[in-house]
Amino acid sequence: MTREIAAHPHDARLYLRRGELHRFHGELRAALADYERAQSLDPTLAEADLGRGRALLEANRAHAARHSLTHFVHARPKDPDGHIELARCLVRLARPAEAAAEYSRAIAVAPRPTPDSYVERANALAAAGRREEAIRGLDDGLRRLGPVVSLQEVAIENEVARKNWDGALARVDSVAALSPRRESWLVRRAEILTAAGRPREARATYREALAAIGTLPPRLRETRAMRRLEAQVMRSLDTLGSDEKEKSDAKS
């Protein structure tokens, strides 16, 4: 790129491309210099604002990044990347409600939004104390993108946070029904039942998870992750105690 720039020193897009390469390599000062040079050669080159904003955000200069990213969004309102980067900048600035609005704009203009856009918007809404709206947004994503597990996982977290136990359990069950492996989802279900104050159902579900682990072929059951999950289930059952102990405690 440097050789191309030497041959064509007034081509703004060459500086832009080299700036991107510098940014990808973490050479932020060099990247910012190239973005500045690109825009001085072509003041209409809005992409330089996007690159500058990204570089400044990566340099933990969120206030300065916001200025550049706002410029880009005004120049390219139908570019979802600009709205996403501005939203991330606003999250860094502890302005989650404004960030959520930018995520919504990104989703609205994107031909096919990514699951991350919905997840990040939900996290911003939750940080703004708007969990119900966060869940509605995730459900919009599920309708548009299909049964994406990452969206349901965040929805489950939000249902649990607002103590909507039945809603959380229904979501766990819907994901488990589509999953070829149920043991992790059974453990998640048992955790929710425990949090909901339903120990008897939690114990039964943990035992169901143990049974599911026991049916796995040795090559899967002997993995580190599965041994860790099995040990977690055993500890949880010990903590919950037995059905008989629960009956005894209830009588006393």
Outline the structure in words:
By secondary structure, the protein is mainly α. The chain has a domain at 163-252: Serine Threonine Protein Phosphatase 5, Tetratricopeptide repeat. It contains 16 helices and no strands. It has helices at 2-7, 12-24, 28-41, 47-58, 62-75, 80-92, 96-109, 115-127, 131-145, 149-161, 165-178, 183-195, 199-214, 218-221, 224-240, 243-251. It is elongated and about 80 Å long. The relative contact order is 0.05. The model has no long low-confidence stretch (mean pLDDT 95).
What is this entry, summarized?
The chain has 252 residues and is an all-alpha fold. The protein has helices at residues 2-7, 12-24, 28-41, 47-58, 62-75, 80-92, 96-109, 115-127, 131-145, 149-161, 165-178, 183-195, 199-214, 218-221, 224-240, 243-251.
Architecture of the domain at 163-252, CATH level 2? Alpha Horseshoe
Q: Into which percent range does the helicity of residues fall?
A: over 70%
Please state roughly what percent of the residues sit in beta strands, choosing from under 5%, 5-15%, 15-25%, 25-35%, 35-45% or over 45%.
under 5%
The strand count comes to 0
The name CATH uses for the topology of the domain at 163-252 is Serine Threonine Protein Phosphatase 5, Tetratricopeptide repeat
Alpha-carbon distance between the two ends: 79 Å
The multimeric state of the shown protein is single chain
Q: What would you call the shape?
A: elongated
Mean pLDDT over the residues: 95
Quickly count the helices. Answer: 16
Which CATH class of the domain at 163-252 applies here? Mainly Alpha
Structural class: mainly alpha
